[in-house]
Amino acid sequence: MKMTNCLIIGHGAREHAIGEALAKAGVDLYAFMSFKNAGLDELSNNRIIIHSETDFEEIINFCKNNKIDFVVIGPEDPLCKGIVNRLEDNGIPCVGPKIEAAKIEGSKIFMRELLEKYNIKSNIKSKKFNSLDGVEEYIDSNGEETIVVKPDGLTGGKGVKVYGDHLFSKEDILTYCEEIIKNNDNFILEEKIDGEEFTLQTFVDGKNVIGTPLVQDHKRAFENDDGPNTGGMGSYSIEDHLLPFITKDDINDALNDMKEVVNAIRIETGVKYKGFLYGQFIKTSNGIKIIEFNARLGDPEAMNILPLLKTNFLDICKGIINENLNFTIEFEKKATVCKYLAPEGYPISPKKDELVEINDKEISKIGARYYYASVYKKGENIFTTSSRAMGVLGISNSLEEAENIAEKAVGFIKGKLFHRKDIGTRSLLQKRINHMSSLQN
Ligand code: GLY
Predict the structure, then answer these.
(1) Domain residue spans in the chain?
(2) Which atom of ligand 1 is nearest to the CA of 217?
(3) Ligand 1 atom index nearest CA of 292
(4) Global pTM?
(5) Is domain 5-99 annotated with CATH 3.40.640.10?
(6) Is residue 415 within 6 Å of ligand 1 at its C-beta?
(7) What is the whole-number distance in angstroms between the Cα of residue 232 and the centre of ligand 1?
(8) Tens of pLDDT, residues 183-204
């Protein structure tokens, strides 16, 4: 029987989880990444290339030389630079949107304008700026305490600054806006929203938009949601695939808006959205609102959904590519807790090039899984970079058990690392529930 040769692009824990799902689905896995992910190295039997993930010529050559049947793109950078257009022009099918459609993540201004034009229900008030002209007037008329500043382009999740969290006066807001303009970017000022965030990740074939279990991520570096914003310190999902502060109607509203956005992208750009579409929503006292879309799976959130798949992931990828994702996609009814270990000092002054020691045997005994993130393999050893290092995942019948498994497994990874002990705990979940009820009352 002819095997399917599949290439995964990207070097992080999300890509490790995607590679794991592909390998489980029976593909022959290949990997192309900017530094060596030890998990993908093993899953692909060393069929890997370490090279820039945006050198499209090299990727095309690699695909041709290895008779790659299709490519899955993990991170946003190559998507927003047009990797799918280039690969598909060379006859190589992809799971990921073309540049025109990936703009839903690549440009915050494009995203808000699209939502406004197509009257998407969960949209919020915003205004775009390409200079400081009119910024002070906008702040004065709306009140500085209502302001969120977002650079237009990609910032690796670290560009958004919120009044009260990162900006504490009108001067702070103006200074940050000036900094963005000096960096040759534009920005939008958005309404600050109070509520509880949730992530809805979907599989999209151009028309069908299939939802997956809801996940909640934790952006702040330290326990009790303290400290600077990060790429995400960990996430959880619950065995009923819902969250206790989100109703089925909220999910239907969110999914409906995502379907309308996919449709709007097709009408507006002439390009069908195909790949993964990530919706970051917030539930407020006034219904759900959209914070942002990503043209990819979430990191860490991919780790909360892919390991639960009961449907073959290869069939899902083929469904996306062939535009016939018209079957039911099933997930195990289990809870998951993912905790990220990050280098000490992350995200401000992370300790780089530090040894990470993983006790694989003990972690397996507990029944936990782990995913290599921004660490690199040199010889037989693993070292930190300046970003999140290892994702540790507990899966079980209840959130408590899943959290317990993840927390125990963290103890078997040694190095100059830290993690948030509170992610997935009952007390943090209760805090979220109480926050939501206080807003609703
Ligand atoms: N967890 C946030 C993101 O993937 O963008």
Answers:
(1) 5-99, 125-191, 196-429
(2) 1
(3) 5
(4) 0.97
(5) no
(6) no
(7) 6
(8) 989 999 999 999 999 999 999 9
